[in-house]
Write a structure and sequence with these properties.
The complex is a heterodimer of chains A (243) and B (306). Chain A is built from 2 helices and 11 strands; from the N terminus they run E-H-E-E-E-E-E-E-E-E-E-H-E. Chain A is elongated, with a radius of gyration of 19 Å. Chain B is α+β, with helices and mostly antiparallel strands. Chain B is 25% helix and 31% strand. Chain B has a 7-stranded antiparallel β-sheet, covered by helices on one side. A 5-stranded antiparallel β-sheet of chain B has the order 9-10-11-12-16. A 4-stranded antiparallel β-sheet of chain B has the order 4-5-3-6, with helices on one face. The longest helix of chain B has 14 residues. At the A-B interface, loops of A face loops of B.
């Protein structure tokens, strides 16, 4: 870990870390040293990348402004616990990338690849999400209040994606076992993605997500479910003669 | 990686601050492109006092080099060639010469004969171009970019992947007068497009993939397309990943590939339109909190006029 240029003992709650005064490394080094259940606010983020990444413990972090790439990435633990991070602004690429646990709530919109490869935890985007949200999702949850861009859920392996608005082109392209729920329209489905009937369990799952996310404009019994047709899992037997 | 920046001022009162607004944008994208950088600034060419009286406007020639050059000697020879009608400005390791139109062929001939290490970075009536290797932040300081004035700027920070790191391989490419192209990404079909252009007599300065897109764009404009149409042609013909920022004397356009593989963020206010690879580069602009900030959609051409 980087040596600190400030003495953590001089910091008093509620802790405020000003990006105009501290480098991203310094901000993160302080956050990573905080005891469980601490509260901290990061001010003047000005689009800086990698803020609040790799925080293993439950704690409450507010990022007060627009942030850059990888906000809160790698956070949380395998049991799904982790920090609660709120961003009062928009975020760049890959918010919550490879998240393990905890919750990241973006008050604005998110750029590309929100929640990419997340194994656990929840990424809630109150605005819109750009392309490829939930790409290669591995068990986490990505909920978007507004619209989602093209290729949302691309190659997602496990986990849940909830879209409160409309979905862009190639939704769920090459989907594995992740499930996508869409309240609005779907511009087009990706390869091997199909619309499936909503079961009672699906409605229950969406209801739970609406409660957690607070995206109560979403009506659990009116969403469309998109899942894998499982036609791309294996080479077709038609190709046997080729080998 | 690579970083792209475009800034078009709508408020003439900001024009004296163009360079000061531009430098933090470039510095924010320094780490995206530490190999080299290039900056083009558009200003209304001031009439040279010696040329008052309705004579033709001057042509602006921007020069640079990869090696040490005796720029004073180059300047003196060019001045001698142009007589009293020329104006010289020295910036860092480069030179900008305003000269009468009719002197331009002789200037090119002189440079080719006596100064073959000097590179012509661009010509135009409004644009002044610099390109240099090394960290963009250092280049901004060395060339005094902070003090440059104008109504529009485009800049690039380069992390080279497809071709060598030299001045001529650096962006922006200036394939026609006052036309600049910067590119973040890579093209896969540039060799075949280049062969077609070469068959049509188009000459290239480098083996850079982005230069092919720039020359193709210029060829479309020569066919009579407007900037938006020509940009659409580039989008359709060039295969690969790209965020392109294109500037002419009249304005700026932005286009991204179908997969939006390379980032871009636009900030628009009543005073300016700014585009950059990352929001970080826009965060210091005045009034950014109230700006309309958005990401250009893939395969959509955005054009803003002065």
């Amino acid at each position: 870990m980087e040596p600190l240029t400030i003495d953590p003992a001089t910091l008093v709650a509620p802790l405020t870390l000003d990006c105009d005064e501290l480098s991203v490394r310094e901000v993160n080094a302080v956050l990573q040293r905080l005891p469980e259940w601490s509260e901290a606010t990061v001010t003047q983020p000005r689009g800086r990348h990698n803020l609040a990444v790799g925080l293993a413990h439950p704690m409450a972090i507010t990022i007060d402004g627009n942030a850059g790439y990888f906000v809160g990435g790698l956070g949380g633990a395998r049991d799904g616990s982790g920090p609660d991070i709120v961003v009062n602004g928009f975020v760049g690429w890959a918010v919550g990338e490879n998240l393990m646990g905890g919750t990241i709530r973006v008050k604005g919109s998110a750029s590309q690849s929100a929640g990419a490869t997340a194994r656990g935890g929840r990424v809630f985007v109150e605005g819109h999400a750009s392309l490829r949200a939930g790409i290669s999702l591995k068990g986490g949850t990505v909920a978007i209040a507004g619209n989602a861009g093209a290729m949302t859920g691309f190659m997602a392996q496990a986990g849940t994606i909830l879209i409160g608005g409309n979905a862009g082109h190639a939704l769920g392209d090459s989907l594995y076992e992740a499930v996508i729920y869409v309240q609005g329209t779907i511009a087009s489905l990706g390869a091997d993605a199909v619309v499936e009937e909503m079961t009672d369990d699906d409605v229950l799952a969406v209801k739970g997500l609406v409660e957690e996310s607070g995206f109560d404009h979403i009506e659990p019994d009116r969403v469309t479910k998109v899942a894998s047709a499982r036609q791309l899992y294996h080479f077709s037997t038609h190709h046997h003669g080729t080998y | 990686m690579c970083g792209v920046v475009g800034l078009l001022l709508r408020d003439p009162d900001l024009e004296p601050q163009l360079g000061a607004l531009l430098v933090p944008m470039i510095e924010a994208l320094d780490e995206r492109g530490p190999d080299s950088s290039g900056i083009a600034v558009y200003a209304d060419t001031p009439a040279h006092p010696e040329l008052a009286g309705g004579q033709a406007p001057l042509v602006r020639l921007s020069l640079g080099a990869d090696v040490e050059v005796d720029w004073m000697a180059v300047g003196c020879e060019l001045l001698e060639l142009c007589g009293t009608g020329a104006d010289l400005q020295r910036f860092g390791a480069g030179l900008v010469v305003d000269m009468p139109e009719e002197t331009l062929p002789d200037a090119h001939a002189l440079l080719a004969a006596d100064w073959n290490q000097v590179r012509v970075l661009g010509t135009g009536r409004h644009v002044r171009v610099l390109k240099d290797t090394g960290r963009p932040t250092d280049t901004c300081a060395r060339y005094g970019i902070r003090h440059w004035e104008g109504y529009q700027a485009v800049a690039h920070t380069r992390m080279a992947t497809e071709s060598a790191v030299t001045v001529l391989h650096s962006h922006p490419f200036v394939p026609a007068r006052d036309l600049c192209v910067v590119h973040n990404g890579s093209f896969s079909n540039y060799a075949s497009v280049r062969r077609r252009l070469e068959d049509d007599g188009v000459a290239f300065d480098s083996d850079n993939d982005s230069e092919v897109a720039a020359r193709f764009l210029a060829s479309r404009l020569e066919f009579g397309d407007d900037l938006e149409e020509a940009t659409r042609w580039v989008m359709k013909e060039m295969d690969g990943f790209f965020t392109l920022v294109i500037t002419s004397a009249e304005g700026m356009s932005v286009v991204r590939d179908a997969f939006a593989c390379k980032p871009a963020v636009v900030a628009e206010t009543a005073s300016y339109v700014a585009v950059a690879s990352e929001y970080r580069a826009l965060a210091e602009l005045p009034g950014i909190a109230d700006a309309v900030v958005f990401e250009p959609h893939p395969e959509e051409v955005y054009t803003w006029s002065r």
